[in-house]
Design a protein that fits this description.
Keywords: Glycosyltransferase, Transferase. It comes from Microbacterium candidum. Pfam families: Glyco_trans_1_4, Glyco_transf_4. The structure is a single chain. The chain is an alpha/beta fold and 325 residues long. It has 2 domains: 151 residues, Rossmann fold (3-Layer(aba) Sandwich), CATH 3.40.50; 157 residues, Glycogen Phosphorylase B (Rossmann fold, 3-Layer(aba) Sandwich), CATH 3.40.50.2000. It is built from 14 helices and 12 strands. The strands form 2 sheets. Strands 2-1-3-4-5-6 form a 6-stranded parallel β-sheet, with helices on both faces. The chain has a 6-stranded parallel β-sheet with strand order 9-8-7-10-11-12, sandwiched between helices. The longest helix has 15 residues. The relative contact order is 0.13.
Length: 325
């Protein structure tokens, strides 16, 4: 009863493929194992999901990206299947109706669905998945030291891709007066190389004030958080926002697009939300933050004050365990 096959996209532990989904999946794998579960991880490339299900007669937990790519594997599974839905396909711009229908089939065939935010759960319900079959397990946080930076260092963490909105951030930065700020973009360029190359070209126009680091993990990423005074999340699509949660754990204020589940992630204060995809709105918020010491102080106090109430990864695993059980 405490054995699960966990089907995930290939490269879950690849340091060059860091994403919020991969981090969440690793935390689930490691958390369940710490609690005595046998977790048989099966990493699959696109098109290989059916093979991962071939001899699965017991409980299967499958990442939503894999399930959406092979709904027939979920429909034909010999045992119960739980889909871990990080996002809803229809939320992404330009997605095809075939992709939406494939995901709907997979979710409809699952015995249970775990959503990583209340917003995702609501989107699932709107797409026809009964609320009674959906559990919500928001990403947790690890204990981290309170950040003390009080300058004008901006940090944006996420894969360099259109849905993360780094182009919106650079357009907003171009509207700011003065040059007493720096910005660091952390994330892999691999998912959208053409977009990432354009971001690199646009970043170079700021004369060194915008720095792109590529993927960072561990101490190197922690150092960037420690140096940052505010985390900026200009996403066009976001279920919860892992980087935002990491900022919250450190008491770092957040300026973010009011999209998806971000409002839930920053509940409690310490954040400014702006219209998504709107460089002018983001520039206005950044300008206020940079020029108003009282605003900065208030946001820092609020961000520090919410740290004790943040969910831990143990809390997340409690919810995952309950859904699997």
């Amino acid at each position: 009863m405490r054995h699960v096959i966990f089907v995930v996209p290939e490269g879950m532990d690849d340091p060059l493929r860091v994403s919020g989904g991969n981090v969440y999946d690793r935390e689930v794998r490691d958390g369940l194992r710490r609690r005595g579960w046998t977790v048989d991880v099966r990493e699959v490339a696109p098109g290989g999901v059916a093979t991962a299900f071939a001899d699965a007669t017991g409980l299967v937990l499958v990442d939503g990206l894999c399930a959406a790519g092979a709904p027939e594997a979920v429909e034909d599974a010999a045992g119960p299947v739980v889909v871990l839905a990080h996002m809803v396909t229809a939320s992404f711009p330009g997605v095809t109706s075939a992709a939406i229908e494939a995901e709907r089939r997979a979710l409809a065939a699952a015995h249970r669905v775990i959503a990583t935010s209340r917003w995702t759960a609501a989107e699932l319900e709107r797409s026809g998945i009964p609320a009674a079959r959906v559990a919500v397990a928001p990403p947790g946080t690890h204990a981290a030291s309170l950040a003390a930076a009080q300058g004008r260092e901006l940090l944006c963490v996420g894969v360099i891709a259109p849905h993360k909105g780094q182009d919106v951030l650079l357009d907003a930065l171009a509207e700011l007066r003065g040059d007493d700020w720096t910005c660091v973009l952390v994330g892999s360029p691999a998912p959208a190389p053409a977009f990432a190359r354009q971001i690199a070209r646009d970043a170079s126009a700021f004369g060194g004030r915008v720095r792109m680091t590529g993927v960072l993990t561990g101490a190197a990423l922690a150092d960037e958080y420690a140096r940052s005074a505010v985390v900026v999340a200009p996403s066009r699509v976001e279920s919860a926002g892992m980087a935002i949660a990491d900022a919250r754990a450190r008491g770092i204020p957040v300026i973010a697009a009011d999209v998806g589940g971000i409002a839930d992630t920053v509940s409690g204060g310490g954040a400014i939300l702006v219209r998504p995809g709107d460089p002018a709105a983001l520039a206005h918020a950044l300008g206020e933050w940079m020029t108003d010491p009282a605003l900065r102080d208030r946001l820092r106090r609020e961000a520090a004050g919410v740290r004790a109430a943040l969910p831990s990864w143990d809390d997340t695993i409690d919810l995952i365990e309950a859904a699997l059980s």
